[in-house]
Amino acid sequence: MAGPILERELRVLHLEDSEFDHQLLVAHLRRGGLRVQIHQVDSEADFLAALGMGWDVILSDYNLPGFSGLVALDLLKASGRDVPFILVSGEIGEDTAVEAMRNGASDYLLKNNLARLVPALLHAVEATETRRARVRADRELGESKQRLRELAQHLQTSIEQERAAIAREIHDDVGGSLTALKFDLAWIARHSTSAEVTNRVNSALETVTLAIDSSKRIMHNLRPAILEQGLVAALQWIASRFERRNGVACEIRLPASTPELPAGVPLVAYRTAQEALTNISKHAQATRVQLDLSLAGGVLSLEISDNGRGLSQEDLAKARSFGIRGLHERASTVGGWVDLSSGPAGTTLILSVPLNTAAAVDPNALPGGEPNDPSEWGEL
Ligand SMILES: Nc1ncnc2c1ncn2[C@@H]1O[C@H](COP(=O)(O)OP(=O)(O)OP(=O)(O)O)[C@@H](O)[C@H]1O
Ligand SMILES: [Mg+2]
Fold it and tell me: Is this structure's pTM higher than 0.90?
């Protein structure tokens, strides 16, 4: 670091009332190979006026008429500027030196021993620049993390909007056509006089009925209509479907109903349960699963636990696994968070959403405010 510092001209503010001492210090700096642009001030007013002019380092005498190095240091701190400050004094007791260092001085030197001036100055400038660079890097990293978080939240919201839009198209286009086809086939069946035609039509009716069921199922996966009956009903349904499909008991503890939940919260809770249960069936090898929903102290808490094999930090770091990462982002779209704990006794995932502060984002809201909930469009 000293290299680049030596290559440029350093801007030095020198607080010193003795012209002789000032010249001596300048001579030391030049002899030490530094290129400096140095500005001397000798009063509080001049010091204050000069503070904002962008200095690489401030060198300050300790005792000045009506002013002192320690007061100057306080003024520098109060100004909020991060400039290294070195006390250069005729006589400085150990106590004063300690106090100065405690107050943020970078170093202190005795005027009768200026041999250390150049290395002390270079070290102070370098330390400050390293600190500034770190602060800048931290800030940039923080901003970048924030942008990433916003992007991930936006993606989650977009996914739900897109799903709702696809569900609506399936309902309107595919569903509408299949229903019309079913009516036509039923008409043909009723009016057919040939047994052969009737057989064929009935078989076609069966196919159409299957297709209607499939599109209902696809629609449901895209946008769970069951949520219209409330979160409790939706969780009951998803738990019983899990039991049916996996042959593993899923114990549920749910309140009888929930108060009106902020927009977006039921869907986030539903998707969390869905992903947690999917993970259990895919990875956990569990024999018992428990799903609890509670609303206490203004916080919605959804807990899904299993007695399976548990997961490790490596599992969570898998490059191609996005389920749990997505849950964190989903939760934050409504001001909540996800906690995951795991051990040999199994895995527990908890979604918490403070309800009074939950951001009122509706992940289902489509631009233009069109109604987009397939469940509102009646049966296929
Ligand atoms: N309940 C669980 N029991 C044991 N291991 C689990 C459990 N849930 C998750 N895991 C482990 O954590 C990993 C990450 O889970 P995550 O849901 O993020 O991704 P995934 O299920 O692998 O893929 P997807 O992106 O489709 O969800 C899984 O691959 C699995 O190894
Ligand atoms: Mg998963």
Answer: no
